[in-house]
Amino acid sequence: MLLIVVFPLCAQTDQNILVYVPPVSGTGSTTQDNGIFQNLITRELNAWGGITLVETPEEADYSIIGTLRSPSRALYSLQLILVARNSVNLFDQTMRYGTMEEANAYIPSIMFDIIFHAFANKADEDESFTQVEILPVIPAKPKVEHETEPGSDEIWKNRPWYFSAGIFWAPRLYSSDSMVSFNFANISLGLYAEYCFTNISNQKLDFLKFFSIGTGMEFVPDWIIATKKNGDEYRNVILQIPLLFNYVLKPGDIYMHKPYLGLLFNIPLLPYTTVPLISLKTGFQYGVKIGPGIGFADFSFSFDFGKSGLEKHNQNEKREYNRYMLYLGLGYKYGVGMPQRGKQDL
After folding, report:
1. In this predicted model, what pLDDT tens digit does every residue of 80-115 receive, in sequence order?
2. H or E element: which one contains 62?
3. What are the φ/ψ torsions at residue 197 (nearest 5 degrees)?
4. Backbone φ, ψ for residue 36 (5° rounding)
5. How far apart are CA 145 and CA 204, in angstroms?
6. Which CATH architecture group holds 155-336?
7. Distance (Å, rounded) from C-alpha 160 to C-alpha 199?
8. Could you state, in order of their start, the residue ranges of all structural domains in the chain?
9. 2-133, what's its fold?
10. pLDDT digits (tens, 9 = 90+) for 293-313
11. Beta partners for 144?
């Protein structure tokens, strides 16, 4: 059947049909969709012999009018109408798509139908109008050299929100002019929320899709041994509230990493030591897709803006020291929310 259809189409390529393609109008999944579809349509036309693209509708035998629409947030459509020189609509097809990857696969078969009608109606531009809507007819999946397994889509690493929990080895160094103390046997727990700017719709702010901000709660013990004197040691538990700015990297199919920099807001839960309100924190998180979420290893370093002290209630206690903190941990994060269509990594 395919050979029967194609043969007469090719036999008429000596007719040199003149076609005008105006800019695609309307709004699709992104502001780039209009230009992308314009390029796809002209690419298909240029691939056919016997078709010449012209600059104005007045010199064209046919025009191909493209219009984008958004029936819902998750679904978009492209309508293509073949219009004859006498303004008669000869053929109409509507393609619905969710991502540009889908659209790129549909376009060749749709343009084949339109070009076929252009050749078939060359002799009679007043042929009656036919309307067909694709809901959609899915073409054969394009071959890729390294095809991913079914279900390994990109949504998991393009969600707007991530919630995570982690456990950390948190060794600490306390230093002053008169003492140096280490706390190696230190374990902390953390709960976190992170917002990724994946759904930015403003083209000027499109660079933000590589960034995220995060916060949460960390509970970290403090244990300082001021001197070897019996009893001269002090414990506390610090509630740390991070405010982190992350640069999100998504190499390959299963990785999601982020170097980050930010602040910790420190709240001591016991009265035995004092700590500065703010610390600086910097680190790197190495993430790998595990199940529906992301397992990660995290390494970071922080230090206080100011000195800590002992026994806040004791006015005679004047000793102060600096804190330097490491964090080595493992955790798991889970994404929620859907990325805006067209914002996924393709």
Report:
1. 998 888 888 888 888 888 777 777 888 888 888 888
2. strand 62-72
3. -85, 50
4. -65, -45
5. 34
6. Beta Barrel (2.40)
7. 7
8. 2-133, 155-336
9. Rossmann fold (3.40.50)
10. 999 999 999 999 999 998 767
11. none
